[in-house]
Amino acid sequence: MMRRAGTLLVVLVVALGLATPALAVPYPSPPHDFSHPGTTHVSRPLFSHAGGQADRALLVIYIRWDDVDYPNDFDATTVARRYFGTGFPSTTFPSVGDYFRRLSFNDLFVFPASEYQGTAQDGVVQVRYPGTKAQFFATSIVQRNKTLLELADPFFDYSTYDVDGNGRLDNQEIIVNMLEAEPSLPLGQGCGLNSGVAPVTLDGTNLNALQVPLVNTATNLITIIHENGHALTDMADLYGFGAGRLDFAGPTCNLPDTALFAPNSWTKMHLGWTTPVVVEADGFYDIRRADTTGDSFILYDPDDGTNDYFMVENRELTPGTYDQGASDAGLVIWRVNDNSLGVANGLRPIEPMLPDGTTTPTNNYGGSSRDAWDPSDPNTPQRTMAREWADGTPSGVAVRAIGAKDETVRAYFDVPGPGILVDTYPLDQAGPVRAVAGSSHTVDVPVMNTAESGCDTFFFEPVNLPPGWTMTRGARILCAGETALARTTVTPNADAAVGTYDIAIRGWSQTNPAVATTSPLTVDVALRNTRLDLAGLLPLAPAGSTPTLSARLAPEDDSGAGVAGATVTFTLRHEGVVAFTATATTDANGAATVTTPPDLPAGTYQLTIETRRSGQFAPTASTVPFVIRAPAHLLQDVADQLTAMLPTATPAVRSALLSARDELIGNHGGAARNGALDALLAGNPAAAVTKLGHATSYLLIAQSRGASPSAQLQQVGLTGESIARTELARAQAASPQATRELATIAGLIAAGRSRLQAAHYDEALASFKQAVAKAASLLR
Description:
The protein is built from 17 helices and 33 strands. By secondary structure, it is an alpha+beta fold. The protein folds into 5 domains: 187 residues, no CATH class; 150 residues, no CATH class; 100 residues, Immunoglobulins (Immunoglobulin-like, Sandwich); 103 residues, Immunoglobulins (Immunoglobulin-like, Sandwich), CATH 2.60.40; 150 residues, no CATH class. Strands 1, 2, 3, 4, 5 and 8 form a 6-stranded mixed β-sheet that branches. A 5-stranded mixed β-sheet has the order 9-11-12-13-14, with no helix packed on it. A hairpin with a 2-residue loop joins β6 and β7. It starts with 6 loop residues before the first helix and ends with a helix.
């Protein structure tokens, strides 16, 4: 919700130069180490750098009984590969050793213990219990573990791993796994557990301090890893804290063997595998994938101490990785109350902050697709995490403007101190922002003053603008916590290429220009669509004439305006072959015209009119039929057109149209042949042109009375031109030496053509008539 301060108050605050006050407790330098390497959690000495950094050998004791043999497809080689992969150091995915090596970023190597049974040095000792499975399970767990250690003793020297020489082994020196040949209680359905060992000394070495993972051949890989996590690092089970499938300390039973998920950033930090960035200033941060980079961030308020904090990490569900079975992808935000681990105070030491604000169940939460923050997912559209601490007190920190899941997620961290949030994500999601080349486009950017108190003036301006672009600067007065829209205007270069451009909007404080945020913005440059108006195009012309092809280019969104200066190409094709092409430039009204040559034969053509891009105006094209007819046929066509106009004509117009038609094809009620068509067919061009002139006069009368015979006037005029050009050609053939006279005839035709283009139809026919008469004098 936008909060508005009174204008007078804001002006006074700014005028007095009031700024955000300094922190009561500043962030320490160097930053606080939240892994607290000098202090461990209750009863968890290995949940520390000591447990996370100590490479250890692992011995797998693989047991069968007199009445139960090993599964056919689960021999010692299979076990060794499942635990250690191949080679050293192993990079075999998936395996127990590779899991800890890769996710510790090579800080923790788990390698095969040196035994000498079966395949030596593969870390696996196969043993047979001298009795039945029922007899074996009739004893206690710790006694069974002691028995297995004794059965493996002939093939393994425990004293070899007494690194400190104190005569005893513990989990900081070696890890021992008990692997059962088939599922059975207490490991039903392939689950696992950890247990101690009944008192036993072998090879002069006391083994009582070992904590031993117990698993079986049906146990999935993530449970084997989970149980070894306990043994290696004193990892606490996080079943009751809602970790789900976002930490390997969560529930793992009954999952498929491919369900693998990594430790969370809190666990990795405690083990010294990663060092989080402690956020000390408001701003955008890039959070890369946690499993491949170790990135994580801590947000806390020094006023509240270092026990309460949020950790932010980026989880990606990627096949072939140890996060391929995580419950969700995107930002995962953990709320930590660090001193509560192992303490019964009713508070969760760690729990995920779900986007919808709900709390994860207390028992064995298995995770869901709503665990991570990903606004591109309809299940989790939320983009602001501003929760309280575990005890319900306000935290004073927040994660805002969370971006969509990706290899790198961008989010704004809000901690105590000044800040200005410029959030372009909603614009990109709704767009990108569309701007027409050469036109201004308003951009309203959501902004927020993320300081805790005070008011300030903030400016907002573009950066990374391409050459020739312009964008106005915006400004807003914002008080602490206030949100608003900052308005700017972007204008791409008129010649900017169509496509997307990455620019950015920067916001900064007038009081302290160092308080600034830059947020990327994608602008999609488009063009104004255009259309071709072909209303003035003559689709029918006589052979031997030079008709004008015309079109008008106009913006699609403003038909009243024309696009001037655009290049228009006219192309006539006959049976797929180009017969004529020419270009023209549109005038101030968007009109372009070209004139065809007189030698195009009769036939039906395809006329394509196309334009190129002109500044901000997009190209367009249109194809229509264009027919060239023999003059005699054209006269009949025009007469038919006039006949079609008669039923809707007024009496005055009808009279003029009938007279014009009679002049074209004659009134044949009697024996006389008195139309232009008759004269033309009788070989009397002079009479034909005379009749055309009469027809033109009647058509002009009809026009004056409200008719619209402009197409017919052009066609009649062009027929007159066609007849005159035919007679000129005959005269040239008969009297080629009469150059002056021939030039005069050509001039009369050209004059008639100009008058025809100017819509002076009667004057045009008069010129054509003179040309025919002069040609006739050369033919006598």
